[in-house]
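S., here's the first fold you wanted:
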Amino acid sequence: MTTDFEIRFAIDPVSAATMNTDELREHFLIEELFTLGGVNWTYSHYDRLAIGGAMPGGAALALEAIKPTGTPNFLDRRELIVVNIGGAGSISVDGASHRLAARDMLYVGMGAKAVSFASDDAGEPAKFYLISAPAHARHPTTLIKIEDAKRLDLGSQATSNERSIFQFIHPEGAKTCQLVVGMTTLAAGSVWNTMPSHYHDRRSEAYLYFDLAEDARVVHLMGEYDETRHLMVKNEEAVLSPSWSIHSGVGTASYTFIWAMAGDNVDYTDVDKVAMEELR
């Protein structure tokens, strides 16, 4: 088993506006999330949001501490949300086992010590997408099945954004300190997400794009709304979205993405909207 991490420092909008394609990808795109038999982390200085992936094969993988957290155990001062986008698997939290099918989510509260990830079938391994942020209180470990998430059906075929939003974390559901996580699935023939665009100056966000064919791509729009940039993103890659950046996207085919936010509040509707005529 290996646990690897990299650190991404916070970039201001003035600096981002001067970056070329390679520099934008280096600072904002997470390309290697899932490695069979390993746990990979990207520790960011955007609200100390950490994004990772665990892909267990024949043996379970432990959640190990990494140097940037500065604590003996990874969750000593953090909370964790895990979403499975692969084969069926299970997560053990201090001796209690929780089984996750594809698209199920598990919240693990601050203070958990022994956390490990396992696949039911090494030939069809689970892919556990990991999202973590600092915590100030301990909330109970909670499993949320995809069928139990709060579902919103929005958009239309006419505007190419017919989609279903699954809110894993919402005011009536599991409690968190600052993480807000959900999943959006676009209907066949729909390709646009988060358009008209918005940003939220009070929270950072990360997007994980998946359910894309090998030759498909998402054009992820980022940057300030009056000076946009873009990233070409392939299947199972993630994007860090600073609080000053918009985060819209359009794909060459339909896709699914997981959005995860951390910051000053847990209000899903707290956004700064951008009118279409303001985009440049």
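And the second, which I think is the more interesting of the pair:
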Amino acid sequence: MKAGIICIGDELLIGQTVNTNAAWIGQEFGKFGISVYKSTTIRDVKEDIVQTVDEYLNEADLIIVTGGLGPTNDDITKETLTEYFGTTLALNDQVLHRVKSFFELRGKKMLDSNIQQAMLPKDAIILENLHGTASGMWFEKNGKILVSLPGVPYEMEALISMEVLPRVKATFGIESNYHQTLMLQGIGESYLAELIIDWENRIYKNGLHLAYLPSSGLIKLRLSSENGVEDSAKIESYFNEIRRDLPQFAYGMNEESIFEVVGELLKSSHKTLGTIESCTGGGIANSFIAKSGSSAFFNGGLITYSNELKQKLAKVSKDTLDKFGAVSEEVAIEMAIGGQKELDVDYAIAVTGIAGPEGGTEKKPVGTVWIAVATPEGVFTKHYLFGEHRGRNIEKTQLYAANLLRKLILGIAENENN
């Protein structure tokens, strides 16, 4: 089946709010073999809504509309769609009771504008929103379905999962596609494609679908099958080949964070970790403690952005700083060794670099990063030259540092012993 997405809101068009809804819906629908052929963002203006809905109803089986359902006067999507589908608004007592309870539970006064949230089209199926006051609305016309949902992401996502997808599956008789995703870190998309070209050809001959999903520092390989879970063993077997042949890159499955993977390795081996960070400003530590239970392996971190704090907290020698500069292998090594001792940990990750966009030189351009990991066996280092974008440099440093530690724990690190 063919689906389209219409996102309504001036805040999306001017970039005040990032439109994550379309991406989430596309990913979720893909799991069920629903093809999203187009996504459009428009103003909450009657003419724009009518024109876009006309276009989509001519082309798609299912249209998802998000946004424009708030209680304020500038939200006119509900009124416009009610008129478009030839029905009228009426007070929905069940929704009114839910809206009243919503405010009572929070100790807030319900305004007249909030009562208007219970005025809903008589000839639409009303979808109960358990997380907000704007209900979802399911319209049908000439065998086509249009679903209007609130734009607040967590409200929209809950309605899609609990209300929309079950109804769509019942209406169109769709079955879930089966797919699994292998997570890789530290390899470029084109280089990976070249390494696995024979593997990829076998994938297609076996009737599976492969997608490369690259992002900064990561690649996701998604294998999917229209036969459902009966192909699960086949997909697992193919991914096992990648894990066997490329263990330095393949670290996890299905959106699994590399920091969670490393954390579990540390916990299972009863080892502890500390971080000594310069260019990442505490980002590595923050990534490791994002999941509950990190206190079982993470002792603490030092943010040594200045040379003074590198000396004071990580015990880096002033002579080393003067001779080699803050962004150097020698300083990274001393940061890791000093941090390992000061934090009393088994493993210590140290990073120092030039995130940019300023501060680079001919010998040390923006994007230069040194990563050092102190282990019970010694110190291992790695040098990178990432690029000119500050945010991506910081993000990549964090990911590459975590993966270097993973490889060291598993005994698959490169020859970087100092």
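Why I say that: The CA atoms of residues 12 and 198 lie 43 Å apart. Residues 258-410 form a domain with the Maf protein fold (CATH 3.90.950.20).

Talk tomorrow,
H.
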